[in-house]
Amino acid sequence: MTDRYASFVQSGAGRTLVKRLGLPDPPRLRRHTPGDPLLTGPALLGAATGGRLAEPVGKILAFAGVEARDPLTIDADARFGALVYDATGITDSTDLRQLYDFLHPHARSVLPSGRVIVLGAPPAECGSPREATAQRALEGLTRSIGKEFGRGVTAQLVYVTPTGDDGTLTSLESTLRFLLSGRSAYVSGQVVRVGAGQAQAPADWDRPLDGQVVLVTGAARGIGAALARVLARDGAQVVALDVPAAGDALAAVTNEIGGSAVQLDLTTPEAPTRLAEHLAARHGRVDVVVHNAGITRDKTLGRMDADRWDSVIDVNLSSQERINDVLLERKLIPAGGRIVAVSSIAGIAGNRGQTNYATSKAGVIGLVDSLAPVLREEQISVNAVAPGFIETRLTARIPLMVREAGRRMNSMSQGGLPVDVAETIGWLAWPASGAVSGNIVRVCGQSLLGA
After folding, report:
1. pTM
2. What is the pLDDT of residues 269-281, one digit of tens each?
3. CATH for 213-443?
4. Which of 84, 114, 347, 404 is deepest in the core (most CB within 10 A)?
C-alpha cells in the first residue's frame, strides 16, 4: 500500500509546503540490507562515573566494525551515527546531570536515521531506593529523545542485569546489533531488558539463525510472509503454517524461501498434537516458535455476537497456549529455545470496536509475563512484539481519515512495513538473544497511543 503523502513530502514542492504549514514530516527511514554496516557514521560512547558496561560495549562495537569515539577527544563539528551512554553508574537523581552533560552538546550532531541508546540497571535489581529511582528516570529521557530528535533517529533504553554471565554479554551484543542497525528502523522509545540466560553468538552475524528450525504460524501473507522471508534470509529452516484455505499462498512463500509448508487449522482439537508429531518426525525439535497467526472480527461490544468473540480469542490467544503446552510437554523446544508471540498496541491501549481483539492481544502480553519466569528454569526465552500501524492489506481497508491518523500519530509520521515487525521478531529469535526474555517490544514508530 502506497503512502502518497510521504512520497509527496520527499518532493521539492512537498518539502516547501511541510515547512511553511508545519505539517507532519515523514523521514526516509534507513532499513536493513544484507551487507550494510551497522551505522552510517561513528558512535560516540560515554559513561557515567562508575559505569560497568562502557568497556564491554566498546569491545562489542569494535568487533561489529563500528568506530567508537571518546567525548573528550572529538572535534566540535563531528557527526555521529549513534550516541551510546553507559548510565549504570548513576545511583542518585543528582547523577542524572551526567546524562545531560553528555547528550546536550551532541543532540544536533546525530546523523539522519541515527541511534541513541542508553544502558541502565534494572530498577528492581538496584541496591537502594535512590538508585532505583534514578534508573527509572531514564525511561522518560529516552522516550522524550525519540520524540525530539526527528529525522528517523530512534532512542532506546536497555536495562542490563548486573552479572558476569557470558549469556548476558552475548545478548547485549545481539541487542546492540539490532538497535544500531537498519533492522530497528520502526522501533523507538522502547525499554529492553537483558537478563541472565543461555545465549550463543553465531559464527556469522549476517546469518544469525544458521541451523535453526523455526515455526511461523500465519505465514501465508502479510507480516507472516515477511517473517518467513527474513528468517530464511538469516539462515533458518522455516516451517511455515497456515490454514488450508491459504494453501496456494503458503506454497508460494515456502517455494520462494526453500522452507516447508504445514496446512493446519490451529483451532481444531487435534491441531497441537498433529503439529507436534510433524515437527518431531521431520526435525526432532523446534528451536523457535513464532505465534503470528491472528484474525480480526470487529464490532462494538454491544453489537458483537458470541462467535466473533470466541473465534478471535481462540485463534489469537488460546491456540498459542495449547501449542505451547504440547510442545513444552513433549520437550520439543530444547534448552536455548525461543518463543515469540505477536501482540498489538491494541492490547496496550485498547481500540474502539475491537474489544475481542484487544482482549486477545493483552492476553498475549499476559502469556509472556507469566511464562518468562517459568521457562527461565528451562533456559527458554519468551517475548512478544506489539505492532502499531503497519501497511498491510488489512490496514488498507481502514477509512481514509482513520488510516491517515494511524500513519501520522507517531514519532516517524508514517506507517511501518511488515518487514519492520519481521526484523524485530528475527532479533528475538536469534540464539544470541537467549538472555532477552519477558519483553514486550512495540514496533510502532513510537506511537502516541498507549505511550
Report:
1. 0.95
2. 999 999 999 999 9
3. 3.40.50.720
4. 84
